Amino acid sequence: MDVIANLGIGLQAALTPTMLWYCFIGVLLGTFIGVLPGIGPLAAISLLLPITYYIGPEVAIVMLAGVYYGAQYGGSTAAILLRLPGTASSAVACIDGNPMARNGRAGVALFITTIASFAGAITGLIILIFFSPYIAKLGLKFGSAEYFSLMLLGLVAACTFSDSPLKGGAMVVLGLLLSMIGTDVNTGVIRYTFGFSELSSGLSLVALAMGIFGVADIIRNINTIDTSRLNERFTMRSMLPNRDDWRLSLPSMARGSAIGSFFGTLPGTGASISSFMAYATEKKLAKNPQRFGKGAIEGVAAPEAANNASAQTAFVPTLTLGIPGDITMALILGALIIHGITPGPQLITSQPELFWGLIVSFIIGNILLVLFNIPMIGVWISLLKIPYRLLYPTILIFISVGVFSVSNSIFDIYTVIGIGILGYVLNMLRFDPAPLLLGFILGPLMEEHFRRALLLSRGSLDTFIDRPISLTILIITGLAVCFIIASSVRRRLRALRTAKESHAS
C-alpha cells in the first residue's frame, strides 16, 4: 500500500503540464544526441546545466534524466545502421546489429532494440521503486577489492566475444595498455605520451570508439556498393520480428535486464560493462555461439536491455546514497546540489514529491521513447538507401565534428584516423574490437581500485581473498577461465578430428 500511495504522490507531481513538457524535451534531445555519433549525453547535459537555474529543480532533473536515458535508446541506431556507436555502451550493438542491417533486417533490429530498451528500463524502474533502500545497503558493502574483482570478471567475460578467446584476451590487454596513456592520477607522472602534450589527459574514449568501429568500417567498405541495401523496401510488416525472433529475444531481454539492473546499482560501473556482460552471457548460453557476430538477434536484445536497465538503476546510488554511478550521473548529482537538494537516505522521506515524481516521470519518459522511436524506424532505415560512396563522406564529417566537440582538439581528429587504420588492420586479422573498448573503459577504474585496495591493506594482496564478496567473484572468474580454456581445447580437438576424417575420406 505504501508503494501505491507513493506512486500516487509521484503521479500528481509528474502529470503537470510543465513536467510533461520538459520530460518530452529531454527524451527527444536524448534520442537525437544518441543517434549522432560522438556527442553523447555527457556533453549535452553539460551544455544544458546552466538552463536549470531558470526552470526549477524538479523539471530540470526530469529533463536531464530524459537526455541521459533517451541517449541509451538512440545510441544503438547509428551502431546498427552505420556501425557507429552513439554511446560507449551501444558499441556492443555493432557486433550483431550491423550484420542484421546488412542482411536486410534493419527494421527488425531497430524494433527489437526499442522493445528491449523499454523492457530493460521498466525492469530497472521496478527495482528502483521496490528495492532502492535494500540495494543501497548492498552497494555499501562493495569496496575497492570487490570492484576490482568484479571488473576482472568483466574482462575475462569479454575474452569470449571473439571466436578465439586468445585473440579476445589480446584485445583486452591492448585496451588496458591504451588506457594507461596519460597522467597517473596518484603520482602525476605522465605515461606513454611519446612527447605529445595532447595525450597528457589520455586517449579520448570517443575517438577510440569512432575510430575502431566507424573509420575502420569505412576503410573496409569504401569501394563497396551494396545494391541489396539500396533496393530494400521498408514496410511495417518487414519491421516486425517473427516467432523465432521473439522466442530468442524474450529470454535474452529478461537476462539482460537482470544483469543491467545489478551493475547499474554499483557506483562506478555504469552501462558499458553491463551491456558487455549481457552479450558475453548470451553467447555462453547459446546452443550455437557461432551465430554471434553474424546477426544473432539475442546479441542485440540482451545488451540493449542491459544498458537501459543500468541507466535507470544508476539513480539508486545517486539519489539514495549521493554517490554517482558514472560521470553523467555526477553531473545530475551536481544539478541537484546546485538547487539545494541533498541526495541521501533521507531524500525519499524528506522530499517524497521530488523522489516519486522523478520515478513516475521516468516511466512516462520511457513510454514516450517507445511511441517516438517505433515510427522513426522507417526514417532511420532510409539511410540505407543512400549509396555508400555518397554516405561515407557524411559519416566522416559527423565523426570529425563529434570527436572535435569533446575537447575542441584537432589532435583528436588525427587520433581517430590513426585508430581507424589500426582497427582496419585488426579487422583484417580477425580481431574483434569490442574487447579492446571494454579494456580501455575499465582500465583506469581497475587501476584506481587496485591501488586503493592495496593502500587500505598496507600492500597486502590478501585483501582480495579475505573479503567474502571479492573471493566469491574471483572464484567465479577462475571457473570462467577454466571453462574458456576447456572450450578452446575441445573446439581444437573437434577441428583436428574433422580434418582427419575429411583427409581419410
UniProtKB/TrEMBL annotation:
Where does the signal peptide begin and end?
A: none
Asked if the record carries the keyword Transmembrane, the reply is: yes
Recorded hits in Pfam families, A to Z, give: TctA
Listed A to Z, the keywords are: Membrane, Transmembrane, Transmembrane helix
**Occurrences of domain DUF112 (ranges):** 20-438
User: Organism's domain of life?
Assistant: Bacteria
Question: Transmembrane residues, as ranges?
Answer: 19-39, 51-71, 107-135, 147-166, 173-194, 200-219, 319-342, 354-383, 395-426, 469-489
Q: What is this protein called?
A: TctA family transporter
What is the native source organism of this protein? Franzmannia pantelleriensis
